[in-house]
Known about the structure:
Helix content is 64%, strand content 5%. By secondary structure, the chain is mostly helical. The protein has a five-stranded mixed beta sheet with strand order 2-1-3-5-4, sandwiched between helices. Helix 22 links the parallel strand 1 and strand 2. Helix 6 packs parallel to helix 19 and helix 8 packs antiparallel against helix 9. The relative contact order is 0.10.
Amino acid sequence: xxETEKEAPSLSQxxxxxxxxxxxxSFIALAYCLQHGMLLLYGxxxxxxxxxxxxxxxxxxxxxxxxxxxxxxxxxxxxxxxxKMAWWQTGLGGAWPSMVCYxxxxxxxxxxxxxxxxxxxxxxxxxxxGLNPGLLYMQTTAMTEPLFLAEMVWSALLVAEHxxxxxxxDQRRASRFLVAAGLVLVGAVFTRYxxxxxxxxxxxxxxxxxxxxxxxxxxxxxxxxxxxxxxxxLLWLAYNAKQxxxxxxxxxxxxxxxxxxxxxxxxxxxxxxxxxxxRVAALYxxxxxxxxxxxxxxxxxxxxxxxxxxxxxWKWRGRGIAAALxxxxxxPFYAYSIxxxxxPIFIPLWWPHSxxxxxxxxxxxxxxxxxxxxxxxxxxxWAARRWSRSDLLVFFVAAVLIVANGVMLxxxxxxxxxxxxxxxxxxxxxxxxxxxxxEIMPKQGMILMYTSEHPGALQSAGIPLKRTIxxxxxxxxxxxxEHPAQSAAVVVTTNGDAVDRAVAAHPEGLTxxxxxxxxxxxxxxxxxxx
Length: 530
């Protein structure tokens, strides 16, 4: 039911306590990860920070620097923080927005659970979510997972609250919740492409609940809600069309997932697991989710979550549970994306026994948290009917198991951290070596360099991006490739990149002064213009 005036302050106080606990955990995780140099292990985290930085620190500053493949909201949120040189270099600038999103996600999940379960069960849901070591690590980085998870949780919460207010006849509150849900879903649309599908299903849930209220006061809010969700993807298509000449550049352009897969797949080599098989793709996605959420009995976690979903769907049908079922959307989305969208997931347990995109499984964390809490709440009610006060024992045991699971996951190293370490093992030493070489180069003059692959070298060296001519400088880049020696004082190439090909075609006026090679990485060569 809709909370009464007496209940609302109590719920707000409970939520603030959850948020405060999450904030403490967030800073503890940040202190540990910063001390151990873990903020920039993900190459994507480095890329996100540098995309945000080049919006103002480049020869051609502006929103075109946001690029065409990654959606813009994460980079826009980073803008105020990466302007400080030290925060850009250490990656600390990427932590602040993620930490806020982590705290918001914990508080939102507690509020969402409180719609259907008792306070102790809602605490269990918040613990499953907030004590996950993988999420605690990710919220110290510039990765988009904490942001998108918070958007998933809060949009589900607001859609559910809209439905409850509508059923109670409070159209003013229903309208307010609906507009707020629309704004959060717009944020999701501009965060990850998962958000496009998530927003579409959220609209269907709202539209079904609104079918008898379109002519009432809340109908205007529904029109605005619909307009927001339609306008957001159209705006991204228009941006791609204007800036890059193709509204679908993010799907079929040179930096799209399909193009990257085509470049990295060797002719005749077997396709990745799940290629054109949604069943296998779903298995890989679910296994990555389970391995990131629980240290033992991975399949049990999934089955208990399914049981909790069944209980919720049956027990609270007609009470807005459809909004919570939106949290399952990542499963079909990633099953399709892996099978037909050139988005592989590799896990160490199964072939090819590696780490790649395992972080996508983290999107199932709200499902595990919410519906496992529903299952535990049902078990506690069953126990209380047979033995007095035994429900408290059920919650206590569940809390102890959650803490123990978090400790075991941490000791074994979270799956997303394993991925970050494995994929940074050769990249970071190479970028650090290149940074040291660049630090002793002339401090004046431009640097011609392809920056999409190893921007961390410039970041580590503290060289402003506006001192470089790179592929994002759409006016200077083509001419610089035609005349490297005349365009820059320092020219940096890596095997096979655009600058390497340009130097091979126009070597006149250049003297090679250094070669940097590292295991598992292409060699870099540094040239000085005469």
